[in-house]
Design goal:
Blueprint lengths: L3 H13 L17 H10 L4 H12 L5 H10 L11 H12 L8 H10 L7 H11 L1 H7 L17 E7 L8 E7 L5 E7 L5 H15 L1 E2 L2 E4 L6 H10 L13 E3 L6 H27 L8 H28 L15 H6 L11 E2 L2 H11 L9 H14 L7 H17 L1
Parallel strand pairs: 1-5, 5-6
Antiparallel strand pairs: 1-2, 2-3, 4-7
Helix pairs in contact: 1-3, 5-7, 6-7, 7-8, 9-10, 9-14, 10-14, 12-16
Amino acid sequence: MLSGCLLYFLVILAMHNVHAVLPPCVDTLTRLDRNSLIEHYFHLGFDYSEILGFLLLCHGIQISLRQLKQILSSNGLFRRRAYSSPRQVITAVERELRGSGSLLGYRQMHQRLRCQYRFTVDRESVRLILQSLDPDGVEKRSRPRLRRRQYHSKGPNYIWHIDGYDKLKPYGFCVHGAIDGYSRRIMWLEVGRSNNNPRLIASYFLDCVKELVGVPRIIRGDQGTENVNVAAIQRFFRYDDQADFAGEKSFLYGRSVSNQRIEAWWGFLRRSDTEWWINFFKDLKDQGLYNETDLFQVECLLFCFMPVLQDELRRVVQEWNLHKIRPSSNESSPPGRPETLYFLPELTSTSSYLNNIKAIDIDVAEDVCCESPDTDVPDSFAELAQIIMDEKGLEMPSSPQSALNLYLELLSSIEDI
C-alpha cells in the first residue's frame, strides 16, 4: 500500500501543477497512451507510488491507486503471479554469466532480468540460481567491504561529482562519468579515446545540461586539466546567480581520491562490469591477439569494441538508476531508486537545486569550449574497415563475441592487403 506520507505528497503535487524534467527512460514515451505508459513503468520495476508520481509529474495524468491496480490487473501485469518459466530464467542467467554479467550479485541480476528480459521472477529464485550456477562468484562477492565516511547533500542537483575512469585506458578505452550527490543518479557515463581532453569532457557536460536546461548548484572534480572547460562553463552559467555557491564557488576542485560519491561508484562499476572487460582484453594480449604497439591492432580494437562497450555502459547506467538503494544509517543518503529520488524529490521532502539557464548561453559555451565526441576512430581506418565489411557482408557487432569475430576478421583481411 501507499504510505500516508506518499499519498499526501501526490495530492500536494496535483494541487500545485508541478512539472518535472523527463528522464531518459521516459522522454521517448510522450506519444504513448496511458495504459502503455503504465505497462512501461511496470516493466522498469517502479512500484505503485512511483508509477503514480511519474504519470502525474511527467505526463499530467492523474489516476487513483485503485484505478492503477485495475489497469494492471486487466493487462495481466502482476508482481507475484504469472512467473516466467524457470528454464527461461536459467538460460538468461547462463547467458549473462558468459559476459560481464558474471560480476553481478543476485540483486543486480534480478534487476537485469526484469529490465532487459522483462521476466517476472523473485529475488530468492535468482539468488538460488546464481548460487548453483556460479558458486565461486557468490563466494567472492560475500567478502567484507570497505566502510566509508558519511556523505551529505541537500537534494538533487545540489552537487554533481565528475571524474575519469582509467582502468580500461591501457587498451585505449577512456571512460568519464558524473553522479548526482543526493540521488546517486548517474548523469552521464561515456567512453571514448580520451578522458583528458577538456573540450571533449565539456561536451559530455553540455549534452546533459541541454537535456535538463539547467546546471547543478555545485560541481566537484579533481585538479586535472580535463576539468578546466567544465569549470569555466559552470562558472559562466552561474556568474550572476544570487544563490549560494555562485560564480567561482560553483566548481570545487579537490583530490580525486576525496571525490567520494564518484569514487565509490567506480568501485561498483568495476565489480559489476569492467573487471570482466579488463580480463577479456588481458586474455587477448596474453594470446598474442593484441599488441598495443601495433597501430592497426589498436585502431581495430577501438573500432570493433567501442560501440559494444558504450552500449553496455548505458545498460549499466539504466539498471543502476532504476535499482533500489537500501536504507542506511546516513540520513542524508535516502533509500529509493536514483531515478525517482532525482526526478521526484518531493517524495523525500526536498526539492531540486537545478539552476535554469538560457539557451543562448548554452550555445555560447558549446561554440567556445566543446568538441564533438564523434572522433573515436580515424576516418582513414574507419573507411578501410567499412570497405572490408561491405565486401564480406559483415555488420557492426552487438556483443563482445561478435566484436571479437569482427576484430579477427578485419586484422586477417588487412594482413592480406
